[in-house]
Write a structure and sequence with these properties.
By secondary structure, this protein is an alpha/beta fold. It is about 45% helix and about 25% strand. It starts with a helix and ends in a 6-residue tail after the last strand.
Protein backbone atom coordinates (compact mmCIF):
# COMPACT_ATOMS: atom_id res chain seq x y z
CA UNK A 1 0.00 0.00 0.00
CA UNK A 2 2.80 2.42 0.90
CA UNK A 3 4.50 1.86 -2.48
CA UNK A 4 1.27 2.72 -4.28
CA UNK A 5 0.74 5.84 -2.17
CA UNK A 6 4.34 6.91 -2.81
CA UNK A 7 3.88 6.57 -6.56
CA UNK A 8 0.59 8.47 -6.48
CA UNK A 9 2.15 11.27 -4.44
CA UNK A 10 5.07 11.46 -6.89
CA UNK A 11 2.68 11.95 -9.81
CA UNK A 12 0.25 14.31 -8.06
CA UNK A 13 1.73 17.63 -9.15
CA UNK A 14 1.20 19.67 -12.32
CA UNK A 15 4.79 19.64 -13.61
CA UNK A 16 5.20 15.95 -12.85
CA UNK A 17 2.03 15.15 -14.77
CA UNK A 18 3.48 17.11 -17.69
CA UNK A 19 6.68 15.08 -17.41
CA UNK A 20 4.73 11.81 -17.42
CA UNK A 21 2.78 12.90 -20.50
CA UNK A 22 6.00 13.83 -22.32
CA UNK A 23 7.82 10.62 -21.41
CA UNK A 24 4.84 8.63 -22.66
CA UNK A 25 6.01 9.82 -26.08
CA UNK A 26 9.55 8.50 -25.58
CA UNK A 27 12.67 8.87 -23.44
CA UNK A 28 14.11 12.35 -22.93
CA UNK A 29 17.15 13.97 -21.33
CA UNK A 30 17.08 16.49 -18.49
CA UNK A 31 18.10 19.25 -20.88
CA UNK A 32 15.30 18.43 -23.29
CA UNK A 33 12.75 18.44 -20.46
CA UNK A 34 14.11 21.75 -19.20
CA UNK A 35 13.65 23.29 -22.65
CA UNK A 36 10.14 21.93 -23.08
CA UNK A 37 8.89 22.78 -19.59
CA UNK A 38 10.67 26.17 -19.57
CA UNK A 39 11.76 25.66 -15.97
CA UNK A 40 15.15 25.70 -14.27
CA UNK A 41 17.29 22.57 -14.36
CA UNK A 42 17.45 22.24 -10.55
CA UNK A 43 13.66 22.33 -10.35
CA UNK A 44 13.17 19.78 -13.13
CA UNK A 45 15.92 17.56 -11.69
CA UNK A 46 14.21 17.59 -8.29
CA UNK A 47 10.92 16.46 -9.84
CA UNK A 48 12.72 13.70 -11.72
CA UNK A 49 14.57 12.58 -8.58
CA UNK A 50 11.34 12.26 -6.60
CA UNK A 51 9.64 10.34 -9.40
CA UNK A 52 12.58 7.97 -9.77
CA UNK A 53 12.68 7.33 -6.02
CA UNK A 54 8.99 6.45 -6.15
CA UNK A 55 9.62 4.04 -9.03
CA UNK A 56 7.47 5.99 -11.47
CA UNK A 57 10.42 6.75 -13.77
CA UNK A 58 13.53 4.86 -14.81
CA UNK A 59 16.85 6.70 -15.08
CA UNK A 60 19.82 5.51 -17.11
CA UNK A 61 23.10 7.11 -18.04
CA UNK A 62 25.10 6.87 -21.26
CA UNK A 63 28.43 8.60 -21.11
CA UNK A 64 27.71 12.13 -19.88
CA UNK A 65 24.04 12.06 -20.89
CA UNK A 66 21.21 10.93 -18.59
CA UNK A 67 17.92 9.70 -20.04
CA UNK A 68 14.55 9.28 -18.32
CA UNK A 69 11.65 7.11 -19.35
CA UNK A 70 8.42 5.82 -17.87
CA UNK A 71 8.61 2.71 -15.72
CA UNK A 72 6.69 0.14 -17.74
CA UNK A 73 6.95 -2.98 -15.61
CA UNK A 74 4.88 -4.20 -12.66
CA UNK A 75 2.48 -2.07 -10.66
CA UNK A 76 4.20 1.22 -11.44
CA UNK A 77 3.97 0.46 -15.14
CA UNK A 78 0.24 -0.21 -14.78
CA UNK A 79 -0.17 2.97 -12.71
CA UNK A 80 1.65 5.06 -15.34
CA UNK A 81 -0.63 3.70 -18.05
CA UNK A 82 -3.72 4.52 -16.00
CA UNK A 83 -2.50 8.06 -15.31
CA UNK A 84 -1.54 8.73 -18.94
CA UNK A 85 -4.99 7.60 -20.07
CA UNK A 86 -6.50 10.25 -17.78
CA UNK A 87 -4.19 13.13 -18.74
CA UNK A 88 -6.17 15.77 -20.69
CA UNK A 89 -3.81 16.16 -23.64
CA UNK A 90 -6.07 18.84 -25.07
CA UNK A 91 -5.24 21.09 -22.12
CA UNK A 92 -3.36 24.22 -23.33
CA UNK A 93 -0.34 23.45 -21.13
CA UNK A 94 0.00 19.91 -22.46
CA UNK A 95 -0.62 21.04 -26.03
CA UNK A 96 2.21 23.56 -25.69
CA UNK A 97 4.51 20.87 -24.31
CA UNK A 98 3.76 18.54 -27.22
CA UNK A 99 4.50 21.29 -29.73
CA UNK A 100 7.85 21.95 -28.03
CA UNK A 101 8.58 18.21 -28.08
CA UNK A 102 7.79 18.11 -31.80
CA UNK A 103 10.27 20.95 -32.37
CA UNK A 104 13.01 19.07 -30.50
CA UNK A 105 12.36 15.92 -32.49
CA UNK A 106 12.40 17.86 -35.75
CA UNK A 107 15.74 19.39 -34.76
CA UNK A 108 17.14 15.94 -34.01
CA UNK A 109 15.82 14.62 -37.32
CA UNK A 110 17.32 17.49 -39.31
CA UNK A 111 20.68 17.01 -37.61
CA UNK A 112 20.67 13.33 -38.52
CA UNK A 113 19.56 14.01 -42.09
CA UNK A 114 22.29 16.62 -42.51
CA UNK A 115 24.81 14.06 -41.34
CA UNK A 116 23.49 11.43 -43.75
CA UNK A 117 23.53 13.88 -46.66
CA UNK A 118 27.12 14.84 -45.99
CA UNK A 119 28.31 11.26 -45.54
CA UNK A 120 26.10 9.21 -47.87
CA UNK A 121 28.81 8.44 -50.42
CA UNK A 122 31.33 7.33 -47.78
CA UNK A 123 28.89 5.66 -45.38
CA UNK A 124 30.51 2.25 -45.59
CA UNK A 125 33.93 3.77 -44.94
CA UNK A 126 32.67 5.57 -41.83
CA UNK A 127 31.19 2.36 -40.45
CA UNK A 128 34.40 0.47 -41.08
CA UNK A 129 36.28 2.87 -38.84
CA UNK A 130 34.44 1.46 -35.85
CA UNK A 131 33.66 -2.18 -36.57
CA UNK A 132 35.00 -4.96 -38.77
CA UNK A 133 31.99 -5.16 -41.06
CA UNK A 134 33.03 -8.47 -42.55
CA UNK A 135 32.97 -10.02 -39.09
CA UNK A 136 29.52 -8.59 -38.38
CA UNK A 137 28.14 -9.76 -41.71
CA UNK A 138 29.50 -13.27 -41.24
CA UNK A 139 27.90 -13.44 -37.79
CA UNK A 140 24.54 -12.21 -39.14
CA UNK A 141 24.52 -14.88 -41.83
CA UNK A 142 25.47 -17.49 -39.25
CA UNK A 143 22.57 -16.47 -36.99
CA UNK A 144 20.12 -16.45 -39.88
CA UNK A 145 21.37 -19.90 -40.88
CA UNK A 146 21.22 -19.28 -44.64
CA UNK A 147 17.53 -20.17 -44.59
CA UNK A 148 15.54 -19.30 -47.70
CA UNK A 149 12.87 -16.64 -47.07
CA UNK A 150 10.25 -15.06 -49.29
CA UNK A 151 10.44 -11.47 -48.08
CA UNK A 152 13.31 -9.59 -46.49
CA UNK A 153 12.90 -6.10 -45.01
CA UNK A 154 16.03 -4.05 -44.27
CA UNK A 155 15.12 -1.07 -42.07
CA UNK A 156 17.44 1.92 -42.42
CA UNK A 157 19.04 0.29 -45.42
CA UNK A 158 21.77 2.92 -45.92
CA UNK A 159 23.93 1.73 -48.79
CA UNK A 160 21.78 -1.38 -49.30
CA UNK A 161 24.53 -3.66 -48.04
CA UNK A 162 22.16 -5.93 -46.05
CA UNK A 163 20.02 -6.42 -49.15
CA UNK A 164 23.14 -7.47 -51.01
CA UNK A 165 24.29 -9.73 -48.17
CA UNK A 166 20.99 -11.60 -47.85
CA UNK A 167 20.06 -11.56 -51.55
CA UNK A 168 21.06 -15.23 -52.08
CA UNK A 169 18.57 -16.27 -49.37
CA UNK A 170 15.60 -13.99 -50.13
CA UNK A 171 13.13 -14.13 -53.00
CA UNK A 172 12.35 -10.44 -52.54
CA UNK A 173 14.24 -7.76 -50.64
CA UNK A 174 12.99 -4.32 -49.67
CA UNK A 175 15.16 -1.63 -48.10
CA UNK A 176 13.68 1.40 -46.35
CA UNK A 177 15.45 4.65 -45.48
CA UNK A 178 14.30 8.19 -44.71
CA UNK A 179 17.29 9.73 -46.50
CA UNK A 180 16.92 10.31 -50.24
CA UNK A 181 20.70 10.63 -50.52
CA UNK A 182 21.24 7.23 -48.92
CA UNK A 183 18.56 5.71 -51.16
CA UNK A 184 20.35 7.06 -54.23
CA UNK A 185 23.55 5.35 -53.09
CA UNK A 186 21.67 2.12 -52.37
CA UNK A 187 19.96 2.10 -55.78
CA UNK A 188 23.29 2.59 -57.48
CA UNK A 189 24.86 -0.25 -55.52
CA UNK A 190 21.98 -2.63 -56.20
CA UNK A 191 22.03 -1.84 -59.92
CA UNK A 192 25.79 -2.31 -60.03
CA UNK A 193 25.42 -5.74 -58.42
CA UNK A 194 22.52 -6.71 -60.67
CA UNK A 195 20.24 -7.46 -57.71
CA UNK A 196 16.92 -7.42 -59.50
CA UNK A 197 15.14 -9.11 -56.59
CA UNK A 198 15.78 -6.10 -54.33
CA UNK A 199 14.43 -2.58 -54.29
CA UNK A 200 14.54 0.42 -51.97
CA UNK A 201 12.09 3.15 -51.11
CA UNK A 202 11.67 5.98 -48.67
CA UNK A 203 10.20 4.80 -45.40
CA UNK A 204 10.20 5.31 -41.66
CA UNK A 205 11.21 2.75 -39.02
CA UNK A 206 8.14 3.67 -36.95
CA UNK A 207 5.70 3.24 -39.85
CA UNK A 208 7.14 0.67 -42.22
CA UNK A 209 4.35 0.86 -44.76
CA UNK A 210 4.11 -2.91 -45.11
CA UNK A 211 1.25 -5.20 -44.15
CA UNK A 212 0.80 -7.07 -40.91
CA UNK A 213 2.54 -10.47 -40.91
CA UNK A 214 4.07 -9.79 -44.32
CA UNK A 215 7.84 -10.13 -43.78
CA UNK A 216 9.84 -13.30 -43.12
CA UNK A 217 13.02 -11.55 -42.02
CA UNK A 218 13.50 -8.00 -40.72
CA UNK A 219 16.97 -6.55 -40.20
CA UNK A 220 18.16 -3.53 -38.19
CA UNK A 221 21.86 -3.16 -38.97
CA UNK A 222 23.50 -0.30 -37.03
CA UNK A 223 20.26 1.68 -37.11
CA UNK A 224 18.67 1.74 -33.66
CA UNK A 225 21.35 3.92 -32.09
CA UNK A 226 19.93 6.74 -34.25
CA UNK A 227 16.37 6.12 -33.01
CA UNK A 228 14.48 8.36 -30.60
CA UNK A 229 12.24 5.41 -29.71
CA UNK A 230 13.99 2.10 -30.44
CA UNK A 231 11.29 0.12 -28.63
CA UNK A 232 8.64 1.59 -30.92
CA UNK A 233 10.69 0.61 -33.98
CA UNK A 234 11.01 -2.95 -32.68
CA UNK A 235 7.25 -3.19 -32.04
CA UNK A 236 6.60 -2.03 -35.60
CA UNK A 237 9.01 -4.69 -36.92
CA UNK A 238 7.25 -7.34 -34.82
CA UNK A 239 3.92 -6.30 -36.34
CA UNK A 240 5.32 -6.89 -39.82
CA UNK A 241 6.75 -10.34 -39.10
CA UNK A 242 5.01 -13.50 -40.32
CA UNK A 243 4.43 -16.35 -37.89
CA UNK A 244 7.85 -17.89 -37.22
CA UNK A 245 9.51 -14.86 -38.81
CA UNK A 246 12.79 -13.50 -37.44
CA UNK A 247 14.20 -10.13 -36.44
CA UNK A 248 17.98 -9.61 -36.58
CA UNK A 249 19.56 -6.62 -34.84
CA UNK A 250 23.20 -5.55 -34.98
CA UNK A 251 24.21 -2.54 -32.92
CA UNK A 252 26.85 -1.23 -30.57
CA UNK A 253 27.17 -2.46 -27.01
CA UNK A 254 27.26 0.34 -24.39
CA UNK A 255 30.30 2.59 -24.79
CA UNK A 256 31.64 6.00 -23.78
CA UNK A 257 32.49 7.48 -27.19
CA UNK A 258 30.66 10.79 -26.84
CA UNK A 259 31.99 12.05 -30.18
CA UNK A 260 29.58 9.68 -31.91
CA UNK A 261 26.69 11.57 -30.37
CA UNK A 262 28.14 15.00 -31.11
CA UNK A 263 29.68 14.39 -34.54
CA UNK A 264 27.78 11.42 -35.99
CA UNK A 265 24.18 12.02 -34.85
CA UNK A 266 23.99 8.97 -32.58
CA UNK A 267 21.07 9.24 -30.16
CA UNK A 268 22.15 6.27 -28.05
CA UNK A 269 25.65 5.16 -27.09
CA UNK A 270 24.90 1.50 -27.60
CA UNK A 271 22.49 -0.97 -25.98
CA UNK A 272 22.97 -3.38 -23.12
CA UNK A 273 22.16 -7.00 -23.91
CA UNK A 274 19.27 -7.19 -21.46
CA UNK A 275 17.81 -3.84 -22.50
CA UNK A 276 17.41 -5.03 -26.08
CA UNK A 277 15.99 -8.36 -24.95
CA UNK A 278 13.44 -6.54 -22.82
CA UNK A 279 12.38 -4.33 -25.74
CA UNK A 280 11.95 -7.44 -27.86
CA UNK A 281 9.85 -9.14 -25.20
CA UNK A 282 7.63 -6.08 -24.88
CA UNK A 283 7.00 -6.38 -28.62
CA UNK A 284 5.98 -10.02 -28.25
CA UNK A 285 9.30 -11.45 -29.42
CA UNK A 286 11.52 -14.04 -27.80
CA UNK A 287 15.30 -13.74 -27.93
CA UNK A 288 16.75 -16.82 -29.63
CA UNK A 289 20.43 -15.89 -29.60
CA UNK A 290 22.88 -13.14 -28.63
CA UNK A 291 26.40 -12.78 -29.98
CA UNK A 292 29.11 -10.28 -29.00
CA UNK A 293 31.84 -9.14 -31.39
CA UNK A 294 34.85 -7.12 -30.29
CA UNK A 295 35.90 -4.23 -32.54
CA UNK A 296 38.57 -2.14 -30.86
CA UNK A 297 37.02 0.54 -28.66
CA UNK A 298 33.54 -0.47 -29.78
CA UNK A 299 31.92 -3.86 -29.38
CA UNK A 300 29.00 -4.95 -31.53
CA UNK A 301 26.16 -7.11 -30.22
CA UNK A 302 23.85 -9.18 -32.40
CA UNK A 303 20.39 -10.24 -31.28
CA UNK A 304 18.14 -12.79 -32.99
CA UNK A 305 14.43 -12.65 -32.14
CA UNK A 306 11.47 -14.78 -33.08
CA UNK A 307 7.77 -14.50 -32.31
CA UNK A 308 6.55 -16.01 -29.07
CA UNK A 309 4.23 -18.90 -29.83
CA UNK A 310 1.04 -19.34 -27.85
CA UNK A 311 2.59 -22.23 -25.94
CA UNK A 312 5.44 -20.03 -24.70
CA UNK A 313 3.38 -17.14 -23.39
Amino acid sequence: MELLLSALRAAAEATRLRILALLAKGELTVGELVNILDQSQPRVSRHLKLMCEAGVLDRFQEGTTVFYRLADQGKNGALNKAIIDLVPLGDPEFSKDLLALADIREERFEKAQSYFRENAASWGEIRSLHVAEGQVEEALIELQGKKQVSRLLDVGTGTGRMLELFAPYASQGLGLDVSREMLAVARGNLANKGLENSQVRQGDMYELGVGDASQDLVVFHQVLHFADEPSKAIKEAARALVHNGELLIADFAPHQEEFLRADHAHRRLGFAEEEMIQMGEQAGLACKAVKHLDGGKLRVTLWQFGQVSSGEE
